[in-house]
Design goal:
Elements: H1 14-18, H2 37-49, H3 51-66, H4 70-76, H5 82-88, H6 94-105, E1 119-125, E2 134-139, H7 140-164, E3 172-175, E4 183-184, E5 190-192, H8 194-201, H9 215-228, E6 233-240, H10 241-264, H11 274-283, H12 289-299, H13 307-311, E7 317-321, H14 330-337, E8 342-343, E9 346-348, E10 353-356, E11 369-371, E12 377-383, E13 404-405, E14 414-420, E15 428-440, E16 443-451, E17 455-456, E18 463-464, H15 465-476, E19 484-494, E20 501-510, H16 521-534, H17 537-544, E21 554-558, H18 562-572, H19 589-596, E22 599-604
Parallel strand pairs: 1-5, 3-6, 6-7, 7-8, 20-21
Antiparallel strand pairs: 1-2, 4-5, 9-10, 10-11, 11-16, 12-13, 12-14, 14-15, 15-16, 17-18, 19-20, 21-22
Helix pairs in contact: 2-7, 9-10, 9-11, 10-12, 10-14, 15-16
The protein binds adenosine monophosphate (AMP).
Length: 613
């Protein structure tokens, strides 16, 4: 069973949707026809049964290939011995290797500083969840490895679809992708995001309007085509959950115009991009008043609860990454999808692709990713489960003594992920914390935990992204019986007054879609207290001191649409909409200004948190 035709598709569905006969030649990668689910499944079983062995081979190949690079020569003196690598090559983060990347990107020096594969592009990592944007080398061979990974992901999706749903075989996937114009570095390399790289390098596989570099025109056209073909759509998605919510907002702002286009058979005059015009005109070829009426009827309803299911009634599931920092969007997504399953297919990054979710239909809270052992060489720095995960940020000469490889991770243990790639990253700290939850054959499966470097801190307190997420989820329960849900939030440590205090920005929404009424002060103050009460002992201790070093926590409620404005701000700074993740700890003054200028209510905790609970 296979979906025929498509509208647009992100990572994970390419082989499936395009039916590409892709044979891979790279040494470490087995070859298979991605349309052959059985062959794909056999390969998946095989590689996950030999993870330890494959990882050793991958490291050997990387070292053999790259021992003569300037970077590795500095530590290994031209040798490619794995033991020497483990002994001598230091654990690094982006700042440590930026100087090498800058030499290639800015000064035009050759790739062999870092890798003997030829660097063809630099990928812009979104960086908005952890801080600054990074430039990550990519090579043509790496493109093949990622294509192989995507085919394996298709295999998993195909086989689970086969078992679970009827009617997918004649359906289409509406998967939204947006791209920006390329930038060139002074050294002459193209700078793009990972998703843009995939699309621009495989142009022939995507519909032309995906190539439109004007996000508004592109998204408008993608939605319009999705509406015209609403009865064929069986799967709606995008890369990250936050992106899907942004698309729903865009639809809310434009549905009347789209419906009018469908009624008249004429596309709006502001769609001038030739790719969009051509693609839409093929689909919007006549007046369709009945279709426009039914869209009006659905969209005019006051509450948009279940809008995805109503507009695309054959949709079986929604596809978007919903783990890690995206977990906060689960309630909002459940609201708009009408409770459709959300498939969180993969865990990957600009640096490398890591894991595939082998149980795509499991609850978003239970998703684990099985690492694919031929993508890169993975290592893990254990984190004491009761300790502050940010402490792994220390520069410790003995850090490497604690490292374990993929075959030796332990169930129930948290680790910081390190990656060694063919493209010039060696023992590179991803800044992601993962938890081992089990094994698929001999390959470990990981739950995504959090980023290492996102913290709120006033004094010696350190609140991680995950701590904050848990505390906010607890506090919002006070408003849920009143019909509210939290659309998005962020925070910063306000040290402009003494003592400093935590500030949370909340964008609330009513399930009924009514305007937000005046908020009940007592309930909002209770939310503030509950966030504080849910934070760790150190925070509570500092709040409890007779001269407290942390002031009462503040929630600033912002008006609706604020987090879209924030997203637009970060996109204007070079972040891709596909890969955008709301920063949970805002450092940019301009971003704080944007949020502050839209505050409609400020509330403070009135209680000192109880240290004994
Ligand atoms: P980028 O390089 O911009 O694509 O961002 C990569 C980062 O996104 C990763 O290092 C993770 O922090 C985050 N990320 C990617 N995939 C997932 C996932 N499945 N669940 C949670 N976070 C993810």
């Amino acid at each position: 069973m296979r979906m025929k035709g498509w509208i647009t598709c992100p990572m994970g569905l390419k082989g499936l949707i395009h039916g590409v006969n892709l044979f891979l030649k790279t040494m470490m990668l087995p070859t298979f026809d991605p349309r052959d689910t059985e062959a794909g499944s056999r390969i998946l079983e095989d590689i996950t049964s030999n993870a330890g062995h494959i990882q050793e081979q991958v490291l050997e190949e990387i070292l053999t290939k790259n021992a003569s690079t300037d970077y590795l020569k500095g530590f290994l003196n031209g040798h490619s011995d794995k033991g020497l690598f483990k002994n001598k090559v230091p654990v690094v983060d982006y700042e440590d290797i930026k100087i090498y990347i800058d030499r290639i990107a800015l000064d035009g020096e050759p790739s062999r500083i870092l890798t003997n594969e030829s660097i063809t592009e630099l990928l812009k990592s979104s960086g908005t969840s952890g801080g600054k944007q990074k430039w990550i080398p990519k090579t043509a061979e790496e493109g093949e490895r990622r294509a192989f990974f995507s085919c394996l992901c298709d295999t998993v999706l195909n086989s689970f679809e086969l078992r679970s749903f009827q009617g997918l075989n004649d359906g289409k996937a509406l998967l939204f992708v947006l791209i920006n114009p390329d930038i060139h570095t002074p050294g002459g390399l193209v700078l793009r995001t990972g998703s843009e790289s995939e699309i621009k390098n495989r142009k022939d596989r995507y519909p032309q309007f995906i190539l439109c570099e004007d996000s508004n025109q592109s998204l408008y056209s993608q939605l319009l085509c999705g509406l015209v073909q609403r009865d064929a759509i069986v799967n709606v998605g995008t890369f990250f959950a936050s992106g899907l919510l942004r698309i729903i907002k865009f639809f809310e702002e434009h549905w009347q115009e789209m419906s009018s286009n469908i009624r008249t058979g004429q596309m709006s005059a502001w769609i001038t991009d030739p790719n969009c015009k051509r693609a839409v005109s093929l689909i919007l070829s006549k007046q369709m008043p009945d279709l426009a009426d039914s869209i009006d009827l659905i969209c005019q309803e006051k509450s948009w609860e279940g809008i995805i299911k109503k507009i695309w009634p054959r949709t079986k599931y929604v596809m978007a990454i919903i783990t890690g920092s995206m977990a906060q969007y689960i309630p909002a997504l459940e609201f708009y999808t009408g409770g459709l399953p959300v498939v969180s297919p993969v865990y990957g990054s600009s640096e490398a692709f890591f894991g595939i979710n082998m149980k795509p239909l499991c609850s978003p809270y239970d998703v684990s990713y099985t690492f694919i052992p031929n993508m890169a060489y993975y290592e893990f720095l254990p984190i004491d489960n009761h300790q502050d995960p940010t402490c792994t940020n220390r520069k410790d000469a003995h850090l490497k003594d604690h490292i374990v490889d993929l075959a030796n991770v332990k169930i129930g243990q948290h680790y910081e992920l390190l990656v060694t790639t063919f493209t010039g990253l060696y023992r590179y700290r991803m800044g992601d914390i993962v938890l081992v939850t089990g094994f698929h054959n001999s390959t470990p499966q990981f739950k995504f935990g959090q980023r290492t470097n996102v913290v709120l801190s006033i004094h010696t307190d350190k609140t991680t992204e995950q701590d904050l997420q848990k505390a906010v989820a607890m506090a919002i329960q006070i408003l849920e019986p009143l019909g509210f849900f939290l659309l998005d939030y962020s925070s910063y440590a306000d040290t402009s007054s003494i003592p400093g205090h935590y500030v949370l920005f909340w964008e609330l929404q009513l399930r009924s879609n009514d305007d937000i009424p005046e908020l009940d002060q007592v309930k909002m103050e209770k939310c503030c207290s509950l966030v504080e009460q849910s934070l760790d002992q150190k925070y509570k201790l500092l709040r409890n001191q007779s001269i407290s070093t942390i002031g009462p926590l503040e929630i600033r409620v912002v008006k609706q649409g604020t987090f879209n404005v924030l997203m637009d701000f970060y996109v204007s700074q070079g972040t891709s909409l596909n890969q955008y993740k709301t920063p949970k700890n805002i450092k940019s003054e301009k971003a704080i200004e944007i949020l502050d200028s839209r505050v409609v209510g400020k509330f403070y905790s009135r209680e000192v948190p109880n240290q004994d609970s």
